[in-house]
């Protein structure tokens, strides 16, 4: 049997020692290559550490979040847009605050799915205010100031800036920004874009659109500074621009689809063909209500020949030009047939509180004249690869910028805004920590929160001039919320299940968390006399450090507060504010009862103009 024992370690050492002593050391080609490689890496590291301009060191954070990596030619060729791929593009109102901007995104995503197109998402919006000195935010991302021109050909950080308008190299800011200035905020810092793409689809990031359509793999653009679509991006794709006037005729009603034809209950051309006298009388009574409330301003379901008997439908649920209660929850073919007798049709919508927040709240059915209905899905007739909806179409529109002629249509909107539209996860990490701090201030119990919007709302006359009156309204409603939770602690279970919050209801003398944009020293001093907690009481510099870029701007810290208020045992919000709409949407998504999410107008009658 052959001896297979390995040599001892001491023997191995002696051999190596003998080689080291008796064999001269000679450089070979492998060692030379290794040395040159190490020298090359060291040289590169030294070059990359040299600032390219005076600002480079302060732009590191923005560079990390907006880093551009050119696509190779081979990858680009595989991603080229096919001839049958259809895109939807918008002129984005980037000057709006984040939550108003958010619901323009929601509408565009809804339209993209309705039209079976791919929405080209915006790459940025603006933050209107910095939580620190302006220079600290400007060290992170570009700032544009109305009246201050920027020649992009002189910029060394060109890829971090948006484009000028078509045909020029100069950015000339002239947007209605609240303070006349704004910082570029990448969309991913406000919205979980990847979650939108994976759950809703029908969208593509702007940078990926460029990879699909631009033959130059080094091309980079985050969009035009004013949010408008740049026709240079079209390249060789077919293109159609739809003028803003097509969608802003407010005597018309934008619906998702025209309602299905239906046979009128009353045949005005031949009354003898109509059904029973009692049903006709009921129908005529209802039509008088509609004619008195719906102004003059564009067929088949089987008609019920058998008289189902009174009451047919409850006229008390018809409130002028809309329906509530059971009539608003589902289709009512007999009533629909009655309304069609005078050219009316119904559509699923939301009440005025939801209208202001642009959120699904107070579901109703609205009644319109059929001839005044214009359907979004009629845009299917345009076959161009890029369909461009011009201008601003969010002011004066309902949630989703449409009403729906089927319950399924409205439910699709609710699915989008509650499920697909969510904040980036890092906000929730910090919000969870803040919630524990707030809970500790309430003796370990759950707590109540409210949104107190002033500032810009005073200018719009959407808030009470007298802060005392506004505070009394908030205080009374949040105390009522605490009372409700004491009598119904079961309402805390969904919040506890989702976030691990307390199942013990708050006490009436526990502090109230108030999210607010109040900055006036006298109004801050007034609030400090009350039993309240503000963000500044909970948010430490270590929290801001964890948020990094997102801890510097007012729009991003507002997202943090929204994530915190999603965890409140009871939330009281202002219907004028789209901020509260996102809180509401996500609370409903988490299964939290709307009984503990109260939204109403905070402007009191007679207080102010």
Short key terms for the protein model shown above:
alpha/beta, single chain, five-stranded parallel sheet, Rossmann fold, disordered N terminus, 609 residues, globular
Helix content: 25-40%
In total, the number of strands is: 20
Low-confidence stretches: 1-27, 46-79, 297-309
The backbone outline, from C-alpha atoms, is globular
Largest sheet: 5 strands, parallel
Whole-Å distance between the termini? 108 Å
**How big a fraction of the residues is strand?**
5-15%
Domain count: 3
Rg, nearest Å? 31 Å
Please state how the strands of the largest beta sheet are arranged side by side: 8-2-1-15-9
Mean residue pLDDT: 84
What structural category do the secondary elements indicate?
A: alpha/beta
Number of helix segments? 21
Describe the structure.
With 609 residues, this protein is α/β, with parallel strands linked by helices. It has three domains: 65-246, no CATH class; 253-375, no CATH class; 425-600, Rossmann fold (3-Layer(aba) Sandwich), CATH 3.40.50. Helices cover 36% and strands 13% of the residues. Helix 12 (407-420) packs across helix 21, helix 13 packs across helix 20 and helix 20 (554-565) packs parallel to helix 21. The longest helix is centred in the last third of the chain and has 21 residues, at 467-487. The protein is globular, with a radius of gyration of 31 Å. The N and C termini lie far apart (108 Å). 38% of the residues are buried. The model is unreliable at 1-27, 46-79 and 297-309 (pLDDT under 50).
């Amino acid at each position: 049997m052959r001896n297979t024992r390995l040599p001892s370690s001491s023997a191995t050492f002696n051999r190596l020692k003998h080689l080291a002593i008796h064999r001269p050391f000679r450089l070979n080609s492998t060692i030379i290559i290794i040395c040159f490689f190490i020298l090359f890496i060291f040289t590169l590291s030294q070059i990359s550490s040299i600032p390219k301009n005076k600002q480079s060191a302060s732009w590191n954070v923005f560079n990390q979040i907006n880093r551009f990596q050119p696509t190779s030619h081979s990858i680009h060729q595989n991603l080229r847009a096919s001839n049958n791929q259809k895109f939807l593009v918008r002129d984005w109102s980037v000057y709006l605050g984040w939550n108003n901007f958010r619901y323009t995104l929601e509408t565009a995503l809804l339209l993209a799915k309705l039209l079976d197109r791919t929405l080209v998402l915006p790459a940025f919006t603006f933050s209107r205010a910095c939580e620190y000195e302006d220079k600290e935010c400007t060290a992170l991302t570009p700032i544009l100031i109305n009246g201050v021109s920027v020649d992009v050909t002189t910029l060394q950080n060109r890829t971090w800036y948006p484009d000028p308008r078509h045909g020029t190299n100069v950015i000339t800011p002239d947007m209605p920004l609240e303070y006349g200035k704004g910082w570029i905020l990448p969309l991913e810092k406000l919205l979980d874009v990847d979650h939108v793409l994976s759950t809703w689809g029908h969208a593509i990031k702007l940078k990926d659109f460029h990879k699909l359509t631009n033959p130059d793999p080094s091309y980079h653009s985050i969009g035009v500074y004013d949010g408008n679509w740049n026709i240079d991006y079209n390249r060789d794709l077919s293109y159609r621009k739809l003028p803003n006037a097509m969608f802003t005729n407010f005597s018309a009603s934008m619906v998702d689809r025209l309602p299905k034809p239906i046979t009128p209950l009353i045949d005005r051309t031949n009354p003898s063909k109509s059904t029973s006298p009692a049903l006709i009388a009921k129908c005529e009574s209802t039509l008088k209500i509609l004619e008195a409330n719906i102004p003059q301003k564009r067929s088949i379901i089987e008609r019920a020949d058998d008289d189902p008997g009174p009451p047919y439908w409850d006229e008390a649920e018809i409130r002028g030009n809309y329906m509530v209660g059971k009539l608003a929850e589902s289709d009512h073919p007999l009533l629909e047939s009655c309304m069609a007798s005078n050219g009316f049709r119904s559509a699923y919508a939301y009440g005025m509180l939801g209208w202001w927040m642009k959120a699904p709240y107070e579901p109703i059915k609205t009644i319109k004249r059929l001839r005044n209905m214009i359907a979004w899905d009629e845009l299917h007739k345009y076959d161009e690869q890029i369909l461009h909806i011009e201008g601003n179409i969010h002011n004066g529109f309902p949630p989703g910028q449409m009403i729906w002629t089927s319950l399924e249509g409205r439910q699709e909107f609710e699915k989008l805004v509650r499920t697909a539209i969510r904040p980036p996860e890092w906000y929730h990490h910090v919000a969870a920590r803040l919630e524990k701090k707030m809970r500790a201030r309430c003796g370990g119990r759950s707590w109540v929160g409210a949104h107190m919007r002033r500032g810009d709302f005073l200018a719009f006359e959407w808030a009470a001039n007298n802060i005392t009156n506004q505070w009394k309204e908030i205080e009374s409603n949040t105390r009522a919320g605490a009372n409700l939770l004491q009598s119904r602690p079961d309402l805390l279970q969904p919040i506890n299940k989702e976030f691990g919050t307390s199942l013990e209801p708050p006490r009436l003398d526990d502090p109230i968390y108030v999210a607010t944009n109040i900055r006036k020293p006298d109004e801050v001093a007034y609030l400090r006399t009350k039993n309240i907690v503000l963000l500044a009481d909970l948010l430490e510099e270590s929290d801001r450090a964890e948020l990094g870029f997102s801890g510097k701007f007012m729009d991003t810290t507002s997202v943090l507060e929204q994530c915190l208020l999603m965890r409140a045992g009871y939330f009281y919000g202002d219907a004028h504010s789209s901020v509260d709409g996102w809180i509401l949407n996500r609370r409903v998504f988490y299964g939290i009862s709307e009984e503990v999410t109260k939204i109403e107008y905070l402007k009191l009658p007679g207080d102010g103009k």
